[in-house]
Amino acid sequence: MTSVTPAHGVTRVLLTGFEPFGGEDVNPSWQAVSLVAAGPPPGIQVTAARLSCVFGTALEELDAAVERTDPDLVLCVGQAGGRTGISVERVAINVDDARIPDNAGRRPIDRPVVPGGPAAYFAALPVKACVAAVRAAGIPASVSQTAGTFVCNHVFYGLAHLIATRRPGLRGGFVHVPYAPEQVVDRAEPSLPVDAAAHALRAIITTAVTTREDLRVAEGATH
């Protein structure tokens, strides 16, 4: 593990979460991000920004938040209903293919996030080390090979493209959290308490800030 100290002396982290979508009343990504901003890891300055669940608009809001906060690290967080633990995303792909409409009624199909952009980007995070840190905190976690093709992947790819083209010194990536318990009271789906998700995000932030070389352990998938 290699400690990384920014030139300005304070590590600035931008955390983003999403507004509710798909008929839900809450979005655990924003709930967890808000908790972390209110109680950040020691020595780290955290700013939270809520993104619209709208193609295009979410990237405009992300870009504005990056310009406003000038962060060293950006961690975007989204809801992944049905997943059983924290998912640290490995790769963003250059396609929007919406199974459901976004909150503005937009439903792009087979469109690039960035026309002419690369097919994919890898996260600028030590994803396996982040997963290990979350597990060490007693919370289930895994490396995810897909962030889907909805607004979460849209934002993940947009962030990666921003880093590749305009902010090469910035590091960042995307994390999915499961439903909050209040969302699944009447259906049999996995969930994770929001305070546990926030605890996991703190572990990920701390690991990302202090680690440059990722672990070389098997975290792949067979399908």
Helicity level, as a percent range? 25-40%
- SSE series: EHEHEEEEHEHEH
- Fraction in beta strands: 15-25%
Distance between the termini: 31 Å
Secondary-structure-based class equals alpha/beta
Strand order within the widest beta sheet = 2-1-3-8-4-7
**Helix segment tally:** 5
Low-confidence stretches: none
Shape: globular
Largest sheet: 6 strands, mixed
User: What is the CA-based Rg, rounded?
Assistant: 16 Å
The pLDDT mean sits at: 95
Q: How many E-type strands?
A: 8
Please supply descriptive tags for the structure shown above:
single chain, 223 residues, alpha/beta, two-stranded antiparallel ribbon, 5 helices, 8 strands, 30% helix
Descriptive report:
It is a single chain. Strands 2-1-3-8-4-7 form a six-stranded mixed β-sheet, sandwiched between helices. The protein starts with 10 loop residues before the first strand and ends in a 13-residue tail after the last helix. With 223 residues, the chain is of the alpha/beta class. The protein is 30% helix and 20% strand. It is built from five helices and eight strands, in the order βαβαββββαβαβα. The longest helix is centred in the C-terminal third of the chain and has 17 residues, at 194-210. The model has no long low-confidence stretch (mean pLDDT 95). Helix 1 links the parallel strand 1 (11-18) and strand 2 (44-51).
